[in-house]
Design goal:
The complex is a heterodimer.
Chain A (H helix, E strand, L loop, with lengths): L12 E10 L2 E7 L3 H7 L4 E4 L6 E3 L11 E5 L5 E6 L9 E4 L14 H4 L19 H13 L14 E13 L3 H12 L4 E4 L16 E2 L2 E2 H13 L4 E4 L2 E7 L3 E7 L14 E13 L3 E3 L12 E3 H11 L6 E6 L3 H11 L3 E7 L6 H9 L4 E2 L2 E8 L3 E9 L5 E8 L2 E5 L2 E3 L2 H5 L4 E4 L4 E4 L6 E3 L9 H18 L12 E2 L24 E3 L4 E2 H9 L5 H8 L12 H12 L3 H4 L11 E2 H5 L16 H6 L4 E4 L2 E4 L9 H14 L2 E4 L4 E6 L3 H8 L12 E7 L5 E11 L2 E6 L4 H14 L7 E4 L4 E7 L3 H5 L3 E2 L12 E7 L2 E7 L7 E7 L3 H14 L3 E2 L2 H10 L34 H4 L2 H4 L4 E8 L11 E3 L12 E9 L4 E9 L8 E4 L7 E6 L14
Parallel strand pairs in A: 1-7, 8-9, 8-15, 9-12, 15-28, 17-24, 18-19, 18-24, 19-20, 35-46
Antiparallel strand pairs in A: 1-2, 3-4, 5-6, 5-7, 10-11, 10-29, 13-14, 14-15, 16-25, 21-22, 22-23, 26-27, 30-31, 33-34, 35-41, 36-39, 36-40, 37-38, 38-39, 41-45, 42-43, 43-44, 44-45, 47-50, 47-52, 48-49, 48-51, 49-50, 51-52
Helix pairs in contact in A: 4-5, 4-10, 6-7, 11-12, 11-13, 17-22
Chain B lengths: L4 H9 L20 E4 L3 H14 L4 E4 L15 E2 L6 H15 L1 H5 L10 E5 L2 H17 L4 E3 L1 H7 L15 E5 L3 E2 L2 H14 L3 E3 L4 E6 L5 E6 L2 E4 L3 E3 L5 H7 L7 E10 L9 E4 L4 E5 L5 E7 L11 H14 L7 E12 L6 E4 L5 E5 L9 H14 L13 H4 L5 H4 L5
Parallel strand pairs in B: 1-2, 1-12, 2-8, 4-14, 12-19
Antiparallel strand pairs in B: 3-7, 4-6, 5-6, 9-10, 10-11, 13-16, 13-17, 14-15, 15-16, 18-19
The chains are: A alpha+beta, B alpha/beta.
Chain lengths: 1001, 416
Amino acid sequence: MSRFRTEAGGRVKRDKVLSFTFDGVAYQGLTGDTLASALLANGVHLVGRSFKYHRPRGIVTAGPEDQNALITLRRDAARETPNLRATQVELYQGLEAESQNRWPSLKFDVNAINGLASSLFVSGFYYKTFMWPRSFWKNVYEPRIRAAAGLGKAPAKADPDRYTSRYVHCDVLVIGAGPAGLTAALAAKEAGATVILADEGAEFGGSLLGDAVTTIEGKSTDAWMSDVVMNLAMSDKVRMLARTTAFGYFADNFVALVERVTDHLAAPSDALPRERLWQVRAKQVILATGALERPLVFPENDRPGIMMAEAGRSFLNRYGVKVGLRAVVFTATDSAYRAAIDLKQAGVDIQLIADLRARPPADVVDEALACGLTVRAASTLCGTQGGLRVSAAEVGEVNGDLTIGRKEVVDCDVVLMSGGWTPNINLHSQSRGRLIYNETTQNFLPGAPGYDNVSIGACKGTYDLSATMNEGYAAGEAAARASGRKGGMKKGFSSLGGLAMGGGHLGVVPHDRDPGRVKAFVDFQHDVTAKDIKLATREGFQSIEHVKRFTTTGMATDQGKTSNMNALAIAAKAIGKAIPEVGLTTFRLPYTPTTFGNFAGTARGDLFDPIRKTPMHDWAAAQGAPFENVALWKRAWYFPKAGEDMHAAVNRECKTVRTTVGMFDASTLGKIEVVGPDAAEFMNRMYVNPWTKLEIGRCRYGIMCRDDGFVYDDGVVGRMAADRFHVTTTTGGAPRVMNLMEDYLQTEFTDLKVFLTSTTEQWAVIAVQGPKAREVLAPLVEGIDIGKDAMPHMSVREGRICGVPTRLFRISFTGELGFEVNVPADYGQGVLDAIWREVREAGGCAYGTEAMHVLRAEKGYIIVGQDTDGTLTPDEAGVGWAVGKAKADFLGKRGLMRPDLTGPSRKQLIGLLTVDPKRVPDEGAQLVASAAPAKGSHALGHVTSAYWSENLGRSIAMAQLENGRARLGETVYITSLTGAAFPAVVADPIFYDKAGARIDV
Amino acid sequence: MHFSFFSLLRQAFAKHEGWPRQWRDPEPKPAYDAVIVGAGGHGLATAYYMAAEHGMRNIAVVEKGWLGGGNTGRNTTIIRSNYLWEESEALYDHALDIWQDLSQVLNYNVMYSARGVLMLAHTIHDVQVAKRHIHANRLAGIENEWLDPGQCKDFVPVLNLDPNIRYPIMGGALQRKGGVARHDAVAWGYARAASALGVDIIQNCEVKGIRRDASGAVCGLDTTRGMIATKKVGVVAAGHTSVLMQMAGVRMPLESYPLQALVSEPLKPIFPCVVMSNTIHAYISQSDKGDLVIGAGTDQYNSYSQTGGLHITQHTLDAICELFPMFRRVRMLRNWGGIVDVTPDRSPIIAKTPVPGLFVNCGWGTGGFKATPGSGHVFAHTVATGEPHRIAAPFTIERFKTGRLIDEAAAAAVAH
């Protein structure tokens, strides 16, 4: 093993060596390593390049807040994942990682030249230049900026992995399994609550995992953790989710967690999803999310090898990795002393501890001195040296007036820094909790929560270990009680040697360098320096949101976890305001970046949206019909015979229906059963038509408007009984019509005794249309006289067909004699088989939606949503006759009386016959007054439907045209995308059998 | 100070210490000739054009929070003008014209990038609607063209043309002049230019009341920074317009919904344009910084909460991953919501009101950013002259009473 790996200790498995590569170079690590710890064990600090200046960057933290250690992980061509944090990537055998945002190599990056021009590339420089010449922005400047920006590359291939989702409820959700979360979960469990404990790490324990010296209840942290975790794991009331990040906190304790199921495995099983989305509704939430260590802002604080002190300690104690051999510790906090002691005891040379504070706590200093460490109070770093790795630190004395006294260059290969601890209040803030600024600790702490949650431990500013555990246990007990469990127990924990976390410094440290020139980084990834923030405030960007947006500080992939407080302090000082007056930018989800696939889940391919199929779908597929998507439905489009294209098939189908008979699957039409003593009155109010006098057994074509008076839906309605209507709607409109009806019934028409049932999927509907329709059905129908007089057009009968119950409608959407056979859905195929035999014997055919469209257009029947578009009144759509003029009120009546709906120049639905009968206009083509309209000419209307009519031997079209009905016989011009507009004559929209003789036979 | 490469270079030598404030930070004066309420893009643009084109220099913009902090700074920055109705075409194309040289006019790089906006069609009904738009736009002199699926793929190489997906791509309507711009820069650019012309931009100044004189006309505003006398008030406050107008007794036909958007972590350039799919609800482009910028739909319920539902985001990312399956492993960096003010016909209101001296510009719903320059320009005319600009004339409040709607939503009616 390398000289950076300790002899013993840590949680890595020393007998399980793993091979991996980084940028093609082979390395070895241990089971239990992260990619970051494994690289550090090999002496590799340089892992990336910064966003703007492409400066070399190293691993800074050991956790999810790292800004620099972003790599691309590659399993195969389809499983490349960019921008992962090496500090969170668990090592597995054969792992392949690559650095990002550098060319040609990490060590030699051409774009590092940007750094030379960095005095130009200050915050917001791009708003001030790149404006001339105008065309250069899109063609020259922007492409270059884009090429230099970005981090990793998007994968080249479709992701083959699966993502799944679970919905769960629990009494208590505990987020974070450090000392606070573990004790909280323990208490909640002991109080009888159902508990979910989630932690983003691979192991439970949080900060305790990197702690080698502390004892709890007289046990080592390791032993104590094992006991607690085992205790929790044995309970069937506790669900323990490791590698699970709570990333989003929604209203009323709805929390979204993502569990990374397979990313840590060398050879994941296909049976496992890559990630699992847990959507948790918890009665109580306990936030135990800890605190994050802040960097210090000093000149040249970004060189590889400069990292957080606690990260250095964590790499040592948890992973058995020395992050360097010669360290300088630069701190404003007590906790870094413990890091220095631990590293020293592991054999790392600690050159000195430079403490920014003039009077660091004596007990902390004494302990360090006792371990043989050198401590310099009132010391700062005025700069660092080194290229791809820090090689020396310039330590300076801070005088009482903040000037710098004696300076000394100290050799080192690592700088451990600690600027203090920032409570991790992200989720508290996401849950609409208030934040309170604490002047003493210079922290924002959780105030009153927005929902039923509580913050405990370090995320609340409680740093003492015993206090944290006591707080955790009490919170767990209280949460269990609040969620209705018994509770009542109390427990106190004792610990020895927990981390002292006092002290801290916000903003730039004192130094003697030129603040207008030197780079002291606040946001490492985005290359935002202290002087950038000052520049922003100088230019008037004084709201913290403005500072963020102008400088991009806090917009990196850590979303400001390490940078926000320093940026805020620098801005506040520059503006001369107190920190809470300047305020904090808003915390948003996700807590850490979350895979798109996790949100999309199983919604892909056929599962993207539900597929609705009619009971006769498979039959149509077997006949070779292609299908058309209509709303969620698959509808048979046409039924081609061998050698036929769509055009030929549709022509044949249309001819056949008019000459013999055709069969059509109309099951997708929406169906609503309207029932109750007030059913007729309800219909009167919902539809423009009058319903009171509709006889039982008769049908009426219903038109529904919304309150604005425009046509919303249509369909044939049959009266089955005095108190029962069989309502049909358009295929796409069924859900919204049902919703609208329920909405009115429940909120406006509460006086009516009516109930509504969607029966769309309960009925299979087979339309039989054509001169031989009666002949086809006659042998199959029982108990219904379907003769011309006994069952006239627009009537409905109940009886049996092929031995099963039916509601048989005599209606027509083709203009031919027609019936629609409704049978319970399960009988659909059987009845269709029987009808199909008869149809074939009669010389008929099956037809699809395309022929249906043509046939109805030949008759001028409208399709709501195609010929109407939410801007036509019933009259304008040519169905004004349906409006019950004597009715006191109906939905849309008042809207229809608005002056502009009754005024001149309204559009009306008419027919169009192109002068060239072979030419079929585009649906959507505009109608104009001349063949060569000037640009900006007023459109008189547009073509809504256009088809080739084989029955008429010419094209037909329907159109909305201003004052259309007054223009019959006039010529208008139809626009074309390929040439000049072409003429057509305005006509009645009924092109075929105007008298309706064919229907009434 | 004029912004240019040379001023940047000069300042580089001067450690950038000579840059002045981009806009002044004045105390409110006791009285102004006109006050715009709301310092978003539309409000700031209005003030700028009032000063630049109508010579009104004694005017102010008051803002409850920080300028550009509402929907201006939260949207997905899509710019296009391929609307259906002539009234909308005129309005949005007017804006598109101004976008062309807005950076130069304002001397502020707003990064308008005509990357092309491709609107996908997935069903026969979509194709009909798309072609209707193309025919209408061409007649109006607005470029918009139909691409077949292969041409769509050429334009967006990462597009998934698999015919076996749930809603295969049947083509798309492309407006090449459409694109994106840097949203914050638009607000800042207008603020800087307006401030330079003498407009007082007063942030952290919340309007608490609208004062009216005996005749009922507007005579001033009560604000958290004192009373400001003025005879003209232009309310440009997006989601909060209803609340403000209520102060003058005007009830607005608006509903407010949360609308969400999100960005991915930055990626190297992969997405060359803007793609929109109204049918499956996906709107995506890539920012100069490299983030995929993705728009979601509105929540179904009225709300002022800026956290929308998780299922809305899921639905949008379903669609994104279906159209671009290589993005499934890409990660979401940030997800946020804004409050959009929606009118019954989904078109804005840019109008006089029944109260003399009170004007309103609102109802931009989910798509106001693109119109910012045009909206400000025509509303400035309306406020300055007291009469609606020709292009603004159809966008009255009264249209909801008279029925003369400009219904862009209905025109994309759902399938039969």
